[in-house]
Amino acid sequence: MLEVTDLNIEIEDSLIPETVVYDFDITISPGEIVGIVGESGSGKSMSALAIAGLLSRKDMKKKGSIMFEDVELLSVERSHLRKIQGNDISVVFQEPMTSLNPVKKIGWQVEEALRIHSSLSDEELRNAAISMLRDVEISEPEAAYDKYPHELSGGMRQRVMIAAALICDPKLLIADEPTTALDVTIQAQIIELLKKINREKGTAILFISHDLSLVRTLCSRVIVMNKGRVVESGPVDEIFDSPKEEYTKHLIEAIPRFTKIAGRFDTKDAKPILKVENVSARYKKITGYFVPGSRGRQVVKDVSFDMYEGEILGLVGESGCGKTTLGKTILGMLDDTEGSVVHYSKMPQMIFQDPYGSLNPTKTIGRILEEPLRIKGGYSKEARYEKAKDMLSRVGLDESYLSRRPSALSGGQRQRVCIALALIMDPKLIVADEPVSALDVTVQDQVIKLLIKLNKELGIAILFISHDLKVVYELCSRIIVMKDGKIVEQGTDEEVFSNPKDPYTKQLLSSAGYGI
Amino acid sequence: MKTILKKAASFIMTVLLVTLFVFIAFDLIPGDAATNRLGINATPEALERLREEMGLTKPFFVRYFSWLASFFFGDMGISYSYGVSVRSMLASKLPITVTLTVMSFIMIVILSIPIGLYTSKYEDRAASKAVDILGQITMSIPPFFLGILITYVFGMIFKVFTPGGFVSYDINFGKFLGYLVFPSIAIALPKAAMSTKLLKSSILSERKLDYVRTAYSRGNSTMDVLYKHVLKNAIIPVITFLGMTLADIVAGSLVIEQVFSIPGYGRLLISSIANRDYPVVQAIIAIIAMIVIIINTLVDTTYKVLDPRLRGS
User: Fold this and answer.
1) 3-class secondary structure, B13
2) B142 and B200 share a domain?
3) B79 domain residue, yes or no
4) How many domains does chain B contain in total?
5) Which of A85, A95, A290 lies at the smallest CB-CB distance from B218?
6) Pairwise CB contact (< 8 Å): A99 & B232
7) Residue-level pLDDT at A212
8) Does B39 share its domain with B120?
9) Is residue B81 included in any domain, yes or no?
């Protein structure tokens, strides 16, 4: 059905043309599920977008052949290509919030492809959309039809995206990281949905992901890509069980998988570093300037726990559970809070999730690192420089990075800078809010090892906030599980993982594949 | 209901503060209405008597609140300079300023939206580049200078209209509109250029967003992507700008009214400030403040119509 041979994609950006995909080959038969796996920059999304006919920018040169049922997609007229897009080949994108038009109703967007490719009446379109919404298991499809994207949860939005992609009953569905932006319990549901669609409608699926374990559960064949080239391809089990190439081995090794990396921590005789008692927090809501604003929604509800010197404490929960808000409350970054937070150490610091957004792009790394020292005062220029240099070497970067700007650094390097920035005030406690979620799996592995090293060498306690149970298992001896602003369970890793009491913890564990 | 009450409360508070500030300002600046009326050679006794008569000797807050109370019931007082009721003075001038504002606003909208769409759609064409340059030049000309230029070119050389001439709306409405065309152009052109540029950059940045890629993946043509998907999103910042512009025209038309000798609010305001004619100044400023707040409320409502994310809580 689809046969891609020797696809090369070149970007003629600026002066030097850059090839982002080399000699890419893929064949997909009707009803098959094929996966493309790779890290960011591997060219996996580029290849998929080229197949979907969505790389039409003038500065992108494509060579080779993309044959879809006797049509050469690379040379076909645009008007003919449009007849295939949305009709025979459909795409589900990564971020369901930004990939749906925020100002159009769900129903309108689900119907769209059918409206373009058929001449059905409004009534027929509506019926088709509602039955499609029902097929993707949206409860109350009639109500959802008249809603806007922001009124639905992330998982629901992704179901809507899938419904919109399937409305014309396409032969090929391209799913570009469809579960990456979703919570783990939702992720499992979406994978099940894709399987069901493939089984019932016979839709072939091209599944693009950085998550190898997902690819393994879903696909029959897989293509591993790195730096624009196909490294290895073949049946899923073969690739996973006996990878031939070094890169594939490396990639498979880096997958977090419920194994301990950090040493055990014993709370006996440990001195406390943080005491959180009955803490609640709200976001401030501001309305009007002459009339009093109403109070914001309560996001953290009556939370209590202790933390000890040198401990790595895991704080787990899905998006919106209040874990980030709790982290901010502990560091005194919110105004409307109740309860008590007692610190037994000075200058606790925070590391944020997104290393791309949390460094000021106009400042050099040196300037960024020295800033806290400048604010505190009492350091000479040389002392500040030395200190910044020291911290960089602690996180594995050399002096030359001091004069660079964030844009010249990779995601992993940026997160290292963020960690160095947190270290510069010699804290004994760091709140790390999803510090590895935005990073590729191999980079993730390196950053986790760095955090463990810092914990061991400097005795820094880390409150490790994450949605990823596997990573938390690797690091933490004690774990707190949060849901809807409350702590539903807390205890040692054995208690929480091997013997969970709360049904929500059980659900999280089974979605993450614990014990499988 | 609650939001309407809140809006009304902040509306009243804003008008109160604005008028209070004007009262304070006139209290602080030197010179008074009595001296102005009787001239500098008047005897102190005569001045004192007139001040008494005009109520200027009463304490500040008494004067303010008595003004406020009568304003609330539609009585804006008597003009010091003309001796007629401020209300009747303003009533005859209101249609002029409103017409001028509306005409220039319509010109801004009908110029900037199609041109903005064209230049963003055909970014690389020579015509788009020419429009960009032209816009840049127009933007940098202050409206009063544009007014002088227009008066010279169309009034003196081509004799399309008589500079300094004016026909009132109750005499000949058609001619009245004709006289307002060129002043409106002078107000509209720089703003239209800004609005065009804003729409263009807004469309160009919207086009990079994920949902546009989704729209293409459904089989939409470039035109459909632009009109059915991008435009409604891209227009939102332009609405903000148009709202501010409208308020700016209302408050700022005095310069253009002066240049084209149009007897609207603006000119009256200037002469009343010079004559220390407090009742007139007070009334005009209060009315302008109210119009500006009403416009802001309308813009907020438009937002909610365009962007469902802003509706409800």
Assistant:
1) helix
2) yes
3) no
4) 2
5) A85
6) no
7) 84
8) no
9) no
**Nearest-CA distance B216 → chain A (Å):** 7
HSE toward the beta carbon, residue A409, CA cutoff 13 A: 26
Pair B100, B247 in one domain: yes
Contact B80, B278 (CB under 8 A): yes
Q: Distance between CA atoms of B91 and A290, rounded to whole angstroms?
A: 31
What type of residue is A494?
E
Question: What would you report as the CA-atom Rg of chain A, rounded to the nearest whole angstrom?
Answer: 25
CB atoms within 10 A of CB A276: 22
Q: What is the mean pLDDT of chain A?
A: 89
Side-chain-side CA neighbours of A369 within 13 Å: the count stands at: 34
Kindly determine whether residue B9 and residue A84, on different chains, have CB atoms separated by under 8 Å.
Answer: no
Interatomic CA distance for residues A326 and A314, integer angstroms: 13
Does position B313 have pLDDT exceeding 60, yes or no? no
Domains of chain A (ranges; CATH) run: 2-254 (3.40.50.300), 297-348+430-516 (3.40.50.300), 360-426 (no CATH)
Instruction: Please check the confidence at residue A108 and state whether its pLDDT lies above 90.
Output: yes
Tell me the C-alpha distance between B146 and A297, whole Å. 52
Pair B40, B129 in one domain: no
SS3 category, A384: helix
Q: Specify the pLDDT at position A259.
A: 81
Q: What is the ipTM, given to two decimal places?
A: 0.79
Type of residue found at B166: F
Which candidate in A55, A82, A289 is best for mutational testing of the B interface (most B CBs within 10 A)? Answer: A82
* Contact yes or no for B293/B15 (Cβ under 8 A): yes
Which amino acid, B167?
V
Q: Which residues contact B149 (CB under 8 A, 6 or more apart)?
A: B141
pLDDT at B43 over 90: no
pLDDT per position as a tens digit, B258-283? 888 888 888 888 888 888 888 888 88
The residue segments making up the domain with residue B134 are: 91-310
For residue B84, being part of any structural domain is answered with no
Task: Tell me whether A52 touches chain B (CB under 8 Å).
Answer: yes
Let me know whether B36 and B136 are in one domain. no
B122 shares its domain with B184: yes
Give the pairing type, strands A461-466 and A312-316. Answer: parallel
CB A113 within 8 A of CB B219: yes
CA proximity to B282, closest of B6, B33, B11, B96 = B33
Confidence of residue B303 (pLDDT cuts 50, 70, 90): confident
CB contact under 8 A, B232 and A54: no
Q: For residue B289, what is the domain's CATH number?
A: 1.10.3720.10
Measuring CA to CA, how many Å separate A412 from each of A397, A425, A439, A445?
A: 11, 22, 7, 10
Closest by Cα among A330, A335, A319 to A282? A335
Q: What backbone torsions phi and psi does residue A476 show, to the nearest 5 degrees?
A: -110, 145
Assess if residue B77 is contained within a domain.
no
Q: Which residue has the higher pLDDT, A104 or B289?
A: A104
Closest CA relative to residue B200, chosen from B269, B139, B150: B139
Please tell me whether residues B50 and B113 are part of one structural domain. no
> Do A288 and B232 lie within an 8 Å CB cutoff?
no
Shared domain check, B194 and B60: no
